Amino acid sequence: MNAHERVEAALELREPDRVPVFPQIGDHAGIIAGLTYDVMYKDAKAAADAHLQALERYRYDVVAIQVEPSWPVAEACGAQINYPPDKYPWITRNVINEKKDLECLEAPDFMATQSSAVMIEGTRLLAEQADVPVAAFMTGPLTFSLQLMPYNDLMVAIMKDRPFVHNLVKKSVAIIKAYGQQLRAAGASLFVICEHDVQMMMPGHLGEFVVNYLPELLKIFPHNVLHMCGKVTPHLETSASSLAALEGLNMINVDSSVDLARVKALFSGKIGVAGNIDHVQLLPHATPQEVEEACRVAIEAGKKGGGYMLAPGCEITSDTPPENVIAMVKAAAKYGKY
Known about the structure:
This protein has 338 residues and is an alpha/beta fold. It is built from 15 helices and eight strands.
């Protein structure tokens, strides 16, 4: 099988020739290519070339122009973002600073903002040149809402003004949908909807503010992955039946705090699983032998019956040693054969 066939088989809950590797490489590709962080958001060709070089070096199965796209999309909506050369970007001014600001929020022209245009153009370049599937990453309904508005304000609103929060989430979904459609048109074939911040919420919030709004987003791409960081087992258990009923949701990506075998059993062949390699401590700091062993354990827990991709819990850090990424890819070849 080639990478396209392998990834499609896993997403469709079949057994490919071996477990696919989905390493979620973002700024790491630029750093090992000698670029500064800011270039990855300012120069589509340089960013795409860096990812093509990383793909050639590591030979994994899914590539993306960026794993954390919310800064460019928030910027296109009117947020102010700092793109330093020596660290990850951050939001310096939100879009929604008063509730009345929500009235003016709508899907922007993504090509009119440099950073979001780079995401779209970079995706197009990868789709033209990469020999593996190209993923499109975007934060999900709740997490993107938390990036449009100061965290504390939205947390208070969740407790005191639910209608406002639902209106914000609805507008977030419209923006995510518009952005996803442009990435699909650019050639991406896999949509990764990232709910990084659900881990900070009550388990019931996953259903109320995410699952209820996913159906519209799951229609854009042929395959979809819901990415959830942190200790989200209670969230998954609370919303298991609702998630399993979603048409178009192929896989859930979890991190090292979530038991793969438990999640596979929870969804009983209705949704696949990707994960759960530790991207915070293991990949940046362990030896290649330790990485290989952790991958072996994850593969053993996840691969039976298909519907599994070997992946970190979130984007690998830019300082992750290349030899540890290589160890992850080699582990899939060594232990992931069906």
